[in-house]
Design goal:
With 422 residues, the protein is mainly alpha-helical. It has 19 helices and no strands. Helices cover 76% and strands 0% of the residues.
Length: 422
Amino acid sequence: MLDGSTAKKATVLIAVMCLSQVLGMLDNATFSALITLFQQKWQLNNTEIGWISGIYYGGYAAAVPLLVAFTDREDARRIYLYSMALGGLAALGFAFLAGGFWGAMFFRLFAGISLAGTYMVGLKLLTDLIHGKKEQSRAVAYYTAHFAIGTGVSVFVAGEVWQLLGWQWSFIVAGIGSFFAWLVVLLFVAKGLKPEQHIPFRDVVNFKPVIANRPALGYILAYAAHLWELFALRAWLVAFLVFSLSLQPVGSFDWSPTQIASWVFLLGLPASVIGNEFSVRFGRRKLLTIVMGTSALIGFVIGFSASLPFVVVIVAFTIYGISATADSSSLTSGVVANSDPKRKGATMALQSLAGFAAGSLSPIIFGAVLDLFGGSENTLAWAAAFSTMGIGVLLGPLIIHKFGRPKPLSQGVSREDCIDRM
């Protein structure tokens, strides 16, 4: 069993947890990758597509307060294993039993609940087993960056398997990935650390102390603004690329929309890790202001790019993919660094609740705006829908500056934390 007692073991532990995360997330973007297929097969409008995309993150948001906060009381590894098994069953259920809107909603809901018990619970397990602020910060950076890798691999695998074997096999392969991830963690990861002080059950999801911690709350709310943008992008990018390709000359580009989307999403790994390193060097608040402000500006204009040469569209979304993820690790590191060690699980639970609640609503709002402005065959409708993402992420830097002002050193805040928030 691996723990983080030495630098070598910590490195291996991070690698194992990142591998497990990617395998467990094979189901993450499978529906989004095949949106156009299901829209035609089940006769769904854009708003219904938005609901199916959003319910995945809605399930996450509904379950995460209990599952992650419970790690302040129980072994995080045990919660992780049960949740990963649920994800495998949800993927197989979608493959064999989903036959329309309501069936899709049901199985995507449970897939989201599975993610609630693996992503942030896995991060809690990792930070429990690795010690030292600098080591934890880098562990957070690599682990959270692999969320983007998981999404990119999910889109790619779904598209390629669909072309070879049919859409059901895309979900079957995703289910197999979850069960393999379950086995990897069972065999190679040590149990999580139970707290020395046993927190009463009624206090497990008591968020009042977390809300009172203004610096942590600022990063939590900014994380919500970040996921508002990011999850709408991940839900709708393939559909936009399909629309853009329909405006291009026949045979103008060889890559499929799912392959291009995979490329955009995979950029999240280097973007998130490098963004975190820059935030350590130059200041977290400064980095987040620049990155989130830039991303908002791109969101306001990128919807108009559909009819441009497709190479330009790909370059534009490559830049957008970088800006939409370069803030991810820095935001989560900010939450962890400013959390009360005794309430770290509850702090991360509130972070996930706020973030994924926002992320569950944004694909729905995106789809509704798309319908309101004329549908997915209208460039103006796409521009209006992408603007909703820009508006959301623009709130991030404003929130950080309002809530994250450093306190005087005399009030118990270390000089390192004060510099971190500048």
